[in-house]
Structures are given as C-alpha cells and as structure tokens.
DUF2255 domain-containing protein
Amino acid sequence: MTGWTPQELTALAETEEWGLAPHRRDTTLRTPTTIWGVRVGDDIYVRSWRGAGGHWYRAAQRTRTGRISAAELTKDVRFVEADTSLVAAIDEAYRLKYRRYAGSYLEPMLQPQAQAATLTLLPR
C-alpha cells in the first residue's frame, strides 16, 4: 500500500496540472513548479521534461521531500526513484492523460531524458 487514499489518487489522476514544491535544505518550501503527473495503479509519478537538469527535480533529489498541490489536495510527500521496469506503463499513463497535447508538450515527457528523471511520490 502506498499510503494514498482512494480520494487522493482520484484527485491527482483527474487534475491536469499540479504544483510541486520540494523542500530546501533549510526545510522551507521552494516556490511551487507547475508539473504534470500520472497515476499508475495506486502509485503517483512525476517527470522532469528537462531531465536531471530541471530545477525542481534537482531540488527534489537533494532533499527527497516536498509538497504536492492539485485541485483541493495539498499533501507533504517523499520523492523516491521510480522503478525503471515501469517506464512503459508510466509513458502510457502520460499518453492517455495528456493526449490532447500530443505533438507538442507531451513528446518531451516521453523522451529518454524525462524517463530517466521519473520519481514516485509517497505521502508523508
């Protein structure tokens, strides 16, 4: 069990854009970055379309904690490396959820650099 409630999983799955704010080293929150994320089963995933060079991604890698906001949901989270065996399932979830952006914004989310910068969000 991932710790997400069914209501939280539904809210995240149905909300297109999320605010993600990793903690700084001093434990304050950074300014939220608008990101896309997906649900696969009972797990939540986010990717940096800029790969490992994305600011929010580098901050998440350093502190491993932050906060997600989507619709009415605000939740403290931990950032964990995603299981690389799930790349195809996560890609498909992005294709389905963001299909209206096919040919533009969606394509970078399906490239190797974004796939390598995929994190699982776990509630804290």
User: Anything to note?
Assistant: The chain has one domain: 6-123.
